[in-house]
Amino acid sequence: MADAELSIAEQIRQLRSEITRHEHLYYVLDSPEITDAQYDSLLRQLSSLEDQHPEFRTPDSPTQRVGGAPREGFVKLAHSSPMLSLDNALNEAELRDFDRRVRDLLADEPFEYVAELKLDGLSLAVHYNAGLLERAITRGDGAVGEEVTANARTIRSLPLRASTPLTFEARGEAIISRRAFDRLNEQREQDGLPLYANPRNSAAGSLRVLDPAITASRQLEFMAYFYFVDGQPACQSHWQSLEQLAALGFKVNPHRRLCPNIDDLISFCNEFDQRREQLPYEIDGVVAKINSIAQQRRLGYTAKAPRWAIAYKYAARDAETTVEGITVQVGRTGAITPVAILRDVQVGGVTVSRATLHNEDEITRLGLRVGDRVRVERSGDVIPKVVAVVASSPAGQPFVMPRSCPVCASSLIKLEGEVALRCLNVNCPARLMATIEHFAARGVMDIDGMGEALVKQLVDKGLVTSVADLYGLRAEQLEALDRMGRKSAAKIIENIHASRRRPLARLLSGLGISFVGERTAQILADTFGSLDRIATLPEEQLQAAEEVGPKVAAAIRLFFADPRNQELIERLRAAGLCFEQEIRVRGLGPFSGLTFVLTGTFPTLKREEAKARIEAAGGKVAGSVSKKTSIVVAGEEAGSKLDKARELGIEVIDEAELLRRLENQ
Length: 665
Description:
Layout: H1 2-28, H2 36-52, E1 76-78, E2 88-89, H3 92-105, E3 113-119, E4 122-129, E5 132-138, E6 144-146, H4 149-152, E7 168-176, H5 178-190, H6 199-207, H7 212-217, E8 220-229, E9 232-233, H8 238-247, E10 256-259, H9 262-275, E11 283-290, H10 293-299, E12 309-313, E13 318-330, E14 335-347, E15 350-356, H11 360-366, E16 373-377, E17 385-391, E18 412-414, E19 421-423, H12 429-440, H13 452-460, H14 475-479, H15 486-499, H16 504-510, H17 518-528, H18 531-536, H19 539-542, H20 550-561, H21 563-574, E20 595-599, H22 607-616, E21 620-622, E22 631-634, H23 640-648, E23 651-653, H24 655-663
Parallel strand pairs: 2-12, 20-21, 20-22, 22-23
Antiparallel strand pairs: 1-6, 3-10, 3-11, 4-5, 4-7, 7-8, 8-9, 11-12, 13-14, 13-16, 14-15, 14-19, 16-17, 18-19
Helix pairs in contact: 1-2, 12-13, 16-17
């Protein structure tokens, strides 16, 4: 038996090591060696072994990046040393003035600069104890920030375990790529939510959501630029600190330069002012720091900023052009977005010919007509937008939003409380690709291998005109597609077949009903237990479900009232998908009225299993300890939550006691 356990433990160790290596290659070095499907396969193998042998699961396992229930709030923590802001230089003359002040203070002693790109994100301090990620704290007011450890753990480029078991602090920037920012704002627009104004707001909002699963979906990155021990720089130079961070496994921006004088620094600033549009993320300038830590200490600080660093800020990017037309596009959830067709114009080195107008209300606010002269801006935004009308065209005509879908001719609906018009036909060709990708995604129907390239081929060749068509695909049809061999085709068909067994909540989430995401779908499934009941209940009864208000209920009712969606449901029923589950009464039971917090690693229970059992007994599981917490269930390596519980005098129990109370229900 001992030999078998050693064998399993070694398998898990080797898988963890291999997955961690591939995460570093992909998320830190940008040089992947395997495909996403191969990576997912390794992760599933590890997750399966850990599920079967929870005694071998550890907090630094790649499977533990996302875990725990949504928290109720954030704990404020003091920084080891202040996270100060930087003074700005807005032009070359101000940069040279900074250089002159440094030379005067150092009495003409030789010095050099380290030039780094000024990332547009959220500053974050991450602490490691013996090499393990222990906590992450936002900048806050510079002296005190908010602990966002559970969210930070979801950032794939942030190591859960450093390559060397040191105790230290890394400071850096949490950012979102242009591509991920585009996707996020597109989704928010489709959901009728306010758009993020820029990547910084997006990164900050993503790190401060109460559910780590949402942070994980935002695909943040972390780039480190300070290495501290006991709150102070631990190397002799800033350049050495950057190299040490890279050696520890952190992503360090490769676009950095050691500049021996101010002319070299200005050259670097000018170079990346021209190159910034080609970068995969937003920057708004360059940060220059004196390289020598000893010289930094001699230069010291003002009341607000260090004297040894400065931020050179780039000018905002905008231009004037003419609106030559206005068209509309249809998103995955059916949201209709107006788009301005522009006379080609250069904005920050990029030719812009289209700009989003967001919705009908935005066009009215601008007073925009075809033929108007407008100002287009990309200051901090990836997607160009029309920010003002400069000159109105006398012959311009007001734009009128269509009342039927421009692609499938379905009538458009405006849901209560929304500004966006929507096409509710899930089989609308304009929605189809994104709809299928969402339906097949991990966490929804989980059809592994059903990626963007395959979905595009299926749609382009007419093999799939609805998600229901997935269940009629044959292996030989897939084999005929590009880059698809016999084994791959058979595996995908097997995965499609396996998705029939996904629970009701997954199917509800996959249908693409407005405002019905993963959590709402689970609540609906638990409350009503049947897709047919959900499809036929009036709005008032749907609102009996927790967190389902008039807006969500109206969206559900509209979806199921559409004859094309009714046809889709019948086809999915015929395909054998799961339409029913046991009703789980939420909030009733022996734990009713109690709020639990889970912390640490448990001997036998997975975190999600413990959460599910507590909720089944009527309890609520929160992510952080507060005065509202009733009981803290603590396992090994419980950390700050356990300390907070003891400080507040909250009852603390272990897994054995939790199980005893559950068994005595």
